[in-house]
Amino acid sequence: MRFEAVIFDCDGVLVDSEVLAIRGERTALEEFGLDYSPQDYVRQFVGLHDGAFFNALRADYRAARGEDAPADFEERVLAGRARERHALTAIDNADKALRAARERFGRIGVASSSRAHFLKSKLERTGLYEFAAPHVYSADLVAAGKPAPDIFLYTAKKLEVDPARCLVIEDSENGVKAGRAAGMTVWGFLGGGHIFDGHGARLEAAGAARTFADFESFIGTLDLAAHAGPICAP
Question: Are residues 160 and 70 in the same domain?
């Protein structure tokens, strides 16, 4: 089997936003008495669409405090996230990875849990939108966010590629599970600032066929995947 398209996650894969969001959100959540270690926070929440993210946080608040979260709960957590946005940068060599994937397979897409307006803004601010467009899709467009497969299946349909011939690049367990549920091959990316020791093993346990530390390694591996062989099998 040969890949015909590469689908990238955005946060923590193309842009180094997860480490910023985690810092800002955890600071805001501490004000509500919710304290998570960075590792637990990554495992539980990274890769979720905001709807599922806030549902999970509200459940944790209810379990910890015995009452519903206040009306301004979401607003204050989002404000914490926003305070860190000024430091956003592209992941090293993300532009080269997007170009290499398009050159080798012809079609690429971005399938993200970010809300649509934030997704485009992040890619534009880091200079990556021109390399990723036009197939840039938010989970706002589908019924269920990751770990459901909806956004990956939607992206494959837009790319006009069989899901089984799509390669997904993901940094979260939720994202890996979503890609595998879509019937795609998933490779785990470990180049974001939020990655901790043991994260690669967790991605593989979730279904990633392999992991790589940075986009230089990814580009080298693409040359192997561009030819038929066992490396392409999901």
Answer: no
Per-10-residue mean pLDDT, the chain, length 234? 90 88 89 89 82 92 95 93 85 96 94 92 95 96 95 98 97 95 97 86 96 94 61 42
- Name the one residue in this structure whose structure tokens are 């860190």: 84
How many degrees, rounded to 5, is the angle at CA 210 between CA 171 and CA 162? 80
Same-domain pairing of 82 and 157:
no
**What does DSSP say about strands 5-8 and 185-189: parallel, antiparallel, or unpaired?**
unpaired
Dihedral sign of CA atoms 219, 220, 221, 224 in order: positive
Q: Are residues 27 and 78 in the same domain?
A: yes
For the four alpha carbons of 62, 194, 135 and 83, in that order, the dihedral sign comes to positive
Distances (CA, A) of 151 to 137, 145, 158: 8, 7, 11
Q: Are 24 and 80 in contact (CB under 8 A)?
A: yes
Residue 112's Cα: distance from chain center in Å?
6
Do 132 and 212 sit in the same domain of this protein? yes
Total structural domains in the chain?
A: 2
